[in-house]
Amino acid sequence: MLSTGKRLRGLAIVSMIALLSLVLFPAAAQAAYPDRPITIIVPFGAGGGTDQVARVLASLMQDELGVPVNVVNRAGGGGAVGHTAGATAAPDGYTITMITAELAMMHWMGLTNIDYTDFEPIGIVNMDPASVMVAANSPWQTLEDLMEDIKANPGKYRASGTGTGAIWDVARVGWLNAAGLTDGHLPWIPSTGAAQALQEMIAGGVHVVTNSISEGAAMIHAGTVRPLAVMGDERVVAFPDVPTLKEKGIDWSLGTWRGFAVPAGTPADVVKTLEAAVAKAVASDQYVTFMNDVGFGILWLPSDEARQFLAEQDEIMGTLMKQMGVAK
Amino acid sequence: MWENLVGAVALLAQPQVILIALISAVFGMFMGAVPGLTATMGMALLVPFTFFMDQVSVLVAVISMSGMAIFAGDIPGTLVRIPGTPSSAAYVDDAFILTQQGKAARALGLNVVGSALGGLFGALGLMLAAPALARFASRFTSFEYFWLAVLGLSATVAVSQGSVAKNGLSLLIGLFLATIGIDITLGIPRFTFGNVNLLSGISFIPAMVGLFGVSEVIRVTMEEFQGKEAPQIRFGLVEMIRNALDGLRARVRLFIQSGLTGVLVGALPGAGADIAAWVSYGFGKNTAKEPEKFGKGSEEAIISGTSANNAALAGTWIPALVFGIPGDSITAILLGVLMMKGIRPGPGIFENQGNLVYAIYLAFILANLLLIPLGWVATRTGLLMLRVPKRILMPCILLFCIVGAYAINNSMFDVGVMLVMGILGYMLQQLQVPTAPIVLGLILGPLMEQNFMMSVIKTQGSLAMFFTRPISAVLALLCLAAWLYPLYRKRRQARAAAAA
């Protein structure tokens, strides 16, 4: 049996070590961020647009940060599952979420409690405006042709692009409102996404598709779809001949966007480190080439501007979704 | 044409292209054979590598990977009753029952040769009829897709044998499970009880792995854990081909019908190899020599499915190349890659980029010829599994099931889904209720519901268009035939029996 003195001394040494480790290790960890692999949660399936953007950036950030950056797909619930997982992760900078336009919509529909205030944005990296696309064999050559026809025949033509109340439906309502028309002028046919909506349009089931122009790029090049306008502030680089709604006197723009965020409460210096790495990746030749090749638009908003952007988007979506009756 | 062919041969006949074909095939084999990893995931994982490849290498890599993956899904299905990809689910019971009867070599041989020939048949369809098929497919609207889904559902359940009720019950369970999650049409969550994991519904890959794989593990554990030593199976390459060709020779008509079904269904945007296998299985059941054997170890069932799903792969390229519309989830990812590589799909692609189009044809032929020797090696390796004692094999299978179910969405919730489905599958099996229709319901249920809703919203409630559009009407008649034909056949048999 040990003497009391020896035991006390042992206790003292152990407490010293414990104290030392408390003081030393967090400091060491902070100084070294990042010192272990980083995970990017993508709230959609492997191979989709969001996944591709995330993977390209992950490989560039990996070079910048010097640690492996892994992409993990957490698809489901129209993005609710991945966003929830990302927002509830430990706020230590080792779990990043690729946030998407759905973040500004899902909580209005009552699908999740997560909204933009649960995240600390690192930056917005991409923006794809909605568009107005028609079949190449349709009579409408310009946006004016289409709008006049819709005005003269309210409810005769139909549009599609996603499910009811999802982003391209909101884009349609905003466009019609800004042009002085109502929801009923061009009713919505819900579909599973761009592929199904475009197929329906080619087959004559619907007349207008409002998805982003990049989603229709293959068919535009194939000459089966004609883009009439984009709902962006500026023209899209890959389609310089397609005018914006604003040029046509319709004050409306909306698009889908993607960015990176960490859970709220992440230390400011960690956010700074990540912001610098993402900024460099977004400016790289590889990223620019990739985005132009697949027809995605580049938009870089650093952390501060991104925070403001998220608040604006949330408000626009909320207003329109309430008007459309899809918000809870 | 000849200069295009020569040009294409020159593009393909390079050592690094052949090497890429081989590597992609082995990669595809892995993705297909491991339950939970799919051909679509394989395609997604290929994307970063395509950045560094030239046009032809990309085409060869994708074709070789996807063909091998869809075939390789048959291997675990046949050996241990776990379809490696959803495309192998339709005929997994037939293949596995043959294995239990000691005819694993025969079933696997049919898988290899049936897949390769099916793939070649698909390539033929792509070569001869792409523009016409694409035009036909582009006329499909929600009305036609609705009938296609109904046809797929009914052709499989309406059998001549007495198990219609049990098949129907199983299908209804699948259709019910398919209603869970956000309803795409109106955006309303159903049966989710506020659980965020249920918003996207029951993923059918974990469900499939549970229904087939886990239930089998449970059954073996309960019944034959001490199992007898498996016999050594002889399995030479030449022998395999000869046996399989023997099996196919007697069923040339069925094979052609399955290949055609595969190409046609594949060419429809949104319907890929998995739906092709089901529809073909259903047709096969109605036209087979021995329909009563379907689901009980029928070689005809295997031929219907295994050749249709590989034929469908070439079919999915048709709308993608001609109109830029993806034929399935693999070509959806592929289209992005093609555009990045400067390949612009469109009706003019056959004239403007002839060399490339011929390279695609040749790549399909090459990939499917490679499939025979590589498939033989893979199945030979797989057959070793049968010699592992079951008390060691079964825990390993369970481990693979868990990893696969987790991998698809990186979600423990899906592992739970798989285990629950495993128990449900075991219980249904004890009641002699087949479980394959549940998977069918999960795959086709959403297609049927969503297209029905879309149609009635378009017509504001009128159902007339379901019957007045020409293609729609033909599909409706086919459905009617699928329901009535078994009755007719039964009566004829009864009359024949009475006369004799």
What does this entry look like structurally?
The complex is a heterodimer of chains A (328) and B (500). By secondary structure, chain A is of the alpha/beta class. Chain A has two domains: 35-127 and 255-324, D-Maltodextrin-Binding Protein, domain 2 (3-Layer(aba) Sandwich); 131-248, D-Maltodextrin-Binding Protein, domain 2. Helices cover 42% and strands 18% of the residues of chain A. Chain A is elongated, with a radius of gyration of 24 Å. In chain B, a hairpin with a 6-residue loop joins strand 1 and strand 2. The termini of chain B are far apart. Chain B has one domain (2-499). The model of chain B has no long low-confidence stretch (mean pLDDT 87). In chain B, strands 1-2 form a two-stranded antiparallel ribbon. The longest helix of chain B is centred in the first third of the chain and has 34 residues, at 104-137. Classes of the chains: A alpha/beta (328), B mainly alpha (500).
- What oligomeric assembly is this protein in? heterodimer
Determine the mean pLDDT of chain B: 87
Strand order of the largest sheet of chain B: 1-2
Described by the principal axes of the CA atoms, the overall outline of chain B is: globular
Helix content of chain B: over 70%
Q: How many discrete domains of chain B?
A: 1
By secondary-structure content and strand pairing, the structural class of chain B works out as: mainly alpha
> How many helical stretches of chain A?
10
CATH architecture of the largest domain in chain A: 3-Layer(aba) Sandwich
Which spans of chain A have pLDDT < 50 for at least 5 consecutive residues? 26-30
> Which pair of chains has the greatest number of interface residues, and how are they split between the two chains?
A-B, 53 and 53 residues
Question: C-alpha Rg of chain B, in Å?
Answer: 22 Å
Number of helices of chain B: 22
- Alpha-carbon distance between the termini of chain A? 70 Å
Order of helices and strands of chain B: HHHHHHHHHEEHHHHHHHHHHHHH
Q: How many distinct beta strands of chain B?
A: 2
DSSP summary, beta strand count of chain A: 11
